[in-house]
Amino acid sequence: MSKATLTSLEADADREAYLSAIERDGGVIVKHLLEPDLLGRLNAELDGDIATHPPGSRSDSELWQVFHGQKTIRFCGLAAKSDAFIEVLLHPVLKAFADHYLLANCGSYWLNTSQTMIIGGGEPAQMLHRDEGNWPHFPWPGPELTVSSIFALNDFTEENGATLVAPGSHRWPDPQREAQPEEVTQAVMPAGSVLLYTGKVIHAAGANRTPDTWRRGMHISFVLGWLRPEEHHALAVPLEVARQLPEQVQHLLGYRSYHPSGYGGRLGLVDFEDAALVDTPS
Ligand SMILES: O=C(O)CCC(=O)C(=O)O
Predict the structure, then answer these.
(1) CA–CA separation, 214 vs 201, rounded Å?
(2) What tens digit of pLDDT does each residue of 66-77 get?
(3) pLDDT (mean) for 219-241
(4) Nearest residue to 43 (alpha-carbon basis) of 83, 4, 11
(5) CATH number for the 8-232 domain, one of 2.60.120.810, 1.10.150.530, 1.20.58.220, 2.60.120.620?
(6) CA neighbor of 99 nearest in space, from 114, 109, 91, 89
(7) Of ligand 1's atoms, which has the minimum distance to the CA of residue 69?
(8) For 126-144, what is each residue's pLDDT tens digit?
(9) Half-sphere exposure of 173 (CA within 13 A, CB side)
């Protein structure tokens, strides 16, 4: 049996309480972060896409097919698909978490990806990984490059595939060390809760051992503003949709330019101008 544990806090916990748990374990569960009304609207707005999106990977690479899962429904571009998603994206707890870890190393950060992770019955556990493995060019230990969250859109249980996490693995001296079963726990949490975790912690989707219960997860991650995000937002969320979104979301999607804090150059310009000024998305 696993001896590893994650801290679970209620949504009204102090910012310091969840940040210190993340500092220690690499992740924390914040229970009931989404009010029932917001959770209901989010689920309802995603229902149509979930119903029409077949499980399994669209990649022809065997590695990605295994990683994505044959019985898992994944799709991205949620900012173009759901108004309730925008409210979640702007949630002050998510912002405080990303600000804390990323603003020390950049002037602003991007949305890395938004993605459903809806695991069907019989799906085996995903391979353990670190999200910062997307950018393998940095030393270990190194700066925080990315932070992630997975929202439970229905109850996450041991049986239906609650996320696996190896608490403390964000600080292991040897980044090649593999997590042993007793070092891994599961982010069991009620619907509306979120697991916040750094890009340095080892984790994976759990096995769904139920015959037919879908585990409804939604991933939102952020990345330093001077790195390239996993998702191509300008194609996933077209300009005419971005024009209707709040300015902060336009920043997150790269529709406004990057301004360094302190030193460095501006990035994501249009003819040397801030993207917002030249082709204003407002
Ligand atoms: O679905 C989950 O619980 C986590 C999945 C994950 O980490 C991933 O797909 O990168």
Answers:
(1) 25
(2) 999 999 999 999
(3) 96
(4) 83
(5) 2.60.120.620
(6) 109
(7) 9
(8) 999 999 999 999 999 999 9
(9) 0
Q: Which residues contact 206 (CB under 8 A, 6 or more apart)?
A: 119, 125, 126, 158, 160, 161, 162, 163, 164, 186, 215
In angstroms, rounded to a whole number, what is the distance separating the alpha carbons of residues 237 and 203?
Answer: 28
Residue 54: is it exposed, middle or buried by C-beta count within 10 angstroms (0-12/13-18/19+)? exposed
Q: What DSSP line would sit under 136-186, residue for residue? A: TTS-SS----EEEEEEESS-B-TTTTPPEE-TTGGG-S-TTPPPPGGG-EE
Banded model confidence at residue 122, pLDDT cuts 50, 70, 90? very high
**Is 8 within 8 Å of 189 (Cβ atoms)?**
yes
Residue 217 Cβ inside 6 Å of ligand 1? The answer reads yes
Residue 46's nearest CA partner among 72, 24, 78, 70 is: 78
Classify 138 in phi/psi space as left (phi over 0), alpha (psi -120 to 50) or beta.
beta
Predicted local distance difference test score (pLDDT) of residue 263: 79
Q: Give the pLDDT mean for 44-66.
A: 96
Tokens of 115: 């993605």
Residue 41 alpha carbon to ligand 1 centre in Å? 23
Averaged pLDDT, 69-95: 98
Task: Calculate what percentage of the chain has a pLDDT beyond 70.
Answer: 98
Write down the domain spans for the chain: 8-232
Q: Tell which residue, 168, 158, 190, 229, has the closest CA to residue 34.
A: 190
Among candidates 261, 278, 254, 226, which has minimal Cα distance to 79?
254
Name the residue of 68, 70, 127, 150 to mutate for ligand 1: max ligand atoms within 8 A of Cβ: 150
Average pLDDT over residues 251-256: 96
